[in-house]
Amino acid sequence: MVLPFLVLNFASAQQPSQAPSFTPAGIVNSASFEPGMSPGSFFTIFGENLAPAIQTWEGSIQGTSLPSQLGGVSVTVGGQPAYPAYVSPGQLNVLLPTGAVTGPAEVQVTTPQGSSSAAAEVQMHAPGFFAFWLDHPYVVATHSDHSLVARLEPPGPAGHPAQPGEEITLWGTGFGPTNPQAPSGQLFVGAYPLVAPNDLQVTIGGTTAQVAFAGVTFAGVWQISVVVPPGLPNGDHLVQASIGGVRTQDNAFIAVQGPSQAVGIRVFYRLDPWLISGTYGGGIWVSPPVLGPTTQSGALFTLETRAHGLGAQGQLVAINPQWIASDPGMVAVSPVQGNEVKITVQQAGQSSLDVTYQGVTQELLIKATFQGDALLVEIHQIAPAALNSTTMRKISGRSQL
């Protein structure tokens, strides 16, 4: 398995014609992209001619044993083989053995065109949080249901902010030794707690967060379960951890949104690759042509849909609504509950679709009519009178052959 946040390619896939080239400055933590590596963690090498082509270790894993060579590329640290997870001409993501010796070490990359080496330092602790980038980096974190901790507003991955007092899981690498020691060069199932969990300090927005668990749960990946500090205000907050005198990066954030009563619901639509949000007050948006339409021959028209609550001040509020169609034969919703669903128009006709959460309902009126062999789909979003004197927003998506 390759973790998506480890596949970060910044180079072309051209065939290298000479020996690999990199410097000590190009050897960094795979999560933070800052200097430092530690036993059992992922590190990244940036350079030139590092591999003949892009390849991941999927398909090269034998049983549970991780490959020590990938696409003709091998890496050693202090003379000890490491495990490349991703190779490309400009970047390598590599797993260091859990038994690696700390101290100065030579990192050597060997390809079919030759080899090169540079000096590095293996530290007992070199912690970093994995992150994804929007307008600034957000830590990769998950709720207890495994959904992503993410800000409400698009763009961004599907998910919702953390709540004060909620236990969430942060994901990183390089947080130090475990007891027992995690297997080296192996895929495994299990939890390997930190040797000294009390030495790990985590802050969110500058406030100490209680650590519920810290340890390795995947090869090279540390799971840090923390309680978001109660009373933390809404917004993006810096997340930092320190252990063994070493601190994670200074630019990793998390979105926090306290519970709030939703007085309304707003629905966004996505007809890939366009995000359709529209506006209240009679605004009309007509989609570009949509490939793969519903036709007389029976193909389906599917619309990705995201629902958010609206607070009393107009702010977005995390909700988990029910989606109830008056004619489920015409309109199907999957799943039937959640803020991220897919609406599928299965045939021509008309159906209402109620999006309901804690007594608040947003009514959608869906009309579908054939024009020739293409289906014209209209979604009328009926805004509650309490939110807007204009009672209808119309978003039309027309599919064509």
Identify the notable features of this structure and list them briefly.
disordered N terminus, mainly beta, ten-stranded antiparallel sheet, disordered C terminus, 36 strands, 401 residues, single chain, Immunoglobulin-like, six-stranded antiparallel sheet, 3 domains
Task: Give the secondary structure arrangement, pairings included.
Blueprint: E1 27-29, E2 42-46, E3 55-56, E4 69-70, E5 73-77, E6 80-81, E7 83-87, E8 91-95, E9 103-111, E10 114-122, E11 128-129, E12 131-133, E13 137-139, E14 141-142, E15 148-149, E16 159-160, E17 167-173, E18 192-193, E19 201-204, E20 207-218, E21 221-227, E22 235-243, E23 246-247, E24 253-256, E25 264-271, E26 274-276, E27 284-286, E28 301-310, E29 316-317, E30 322-325, E31 331-334, E32 340-345, E33 349-357, E34 360-371, E35 374-382, E36 392-398
Parallel strand pairs: 15-16, 27-36
Antiparallel strand pairs: 1-2, 2-8, 3-7, 4-5, 5-6, 5-9, 7-8, 9-10, 11-17, 12-13, 14-17, 17-21, 18-20, 19-20, 19-22, 20-21, 22-23, 22-24, 25-26, 25-28, 28-29, 28-32, 30-33, 31-32, 33-34, 34-35, 35-36
